Amino acid sequence: MFSFIRQFRRRRLLRRPFPEAWLGYLDARVPFFRTLSPELRQPFLDKLKVFAWEKEFIGAGGLEVTDEIRVVISATAVQLVLHLGLSYYDRLREVIVYPSAFRIPDRTGGVLGEAKNWGSVILSWESVLAGLRNPGDGHDTATHEFAHVLDRADGAFDGTPNLRAYSHYRAWSAVMSEHFHKLQQGQRRERQVLDDYGGLNEAEFFAVATESFFEKPRQMQEKTPDLYEELKRFYGWDPAAGT
């Protein structure tokens, strides 16, 4: 029942015209948008407007949510699911945006982003922009946190999202586990591609690997080709080839 209502609402949003001003935000702030092929641009824009209007964006720490903030963050989310579908974000209800690093009870220091169990993503707008300004450094807070949302879509933060086919799980588990443990051991190839934070647990490994897949695809393809192939099969992208 809820799925039917959601699909009905998404079809209604899809029929609304894409605001022309939003294209300016994408051109100015989102480098990967400019590289999209003509075949992918319209599906990307369709999913972006549905995500931007469907999810609740909440300003925190004195930040007022503008269309620019809504559009840019939505673009980072949609990049991950362009070949998967918005259903991977069905559990996500709201995106909370702080102007910069924020604090969380029982955590020391400032936090740049966090994905919550109950359907929230919290982001630092400053960090979102920093990740987009440096598209090849392997660090992108928004990509990292939305990867956690994909991971959580099957009910747990465990580093394994809902894969495209049941037959994919065995290879996924073997490849992810191998490189996760090698990163924990500090092996050179993994550290050349992946941030050490990915060694914290399987969920963080998947999120860190997703950042590198989109931001350092050629390095990942060269140093850890099997990891690259698993992520390519899941996301449907081949960023090393520019597609």
UniProtKB/TrEMBL annotation:
GO cellular component term, pick one: cytosol
GO molecular function: aminopeptidase activity; metallopeptidase activity
Highest taxon in the source lineage: Bacteria
InterPro entries named among the record's database cross-references: MetalloPept_cat_dom_sf, MtfA_fam, MtfA_N
PANTHER family xref list: MTFA PEPTIDASE (PTHR30164), PROTEIN MTFA (PTHR30164:SF2)
Name by which UniProt lists this protein: Zinc-dependent peptidase
Native source species: Myxococcus xanthus (strain DK1622)
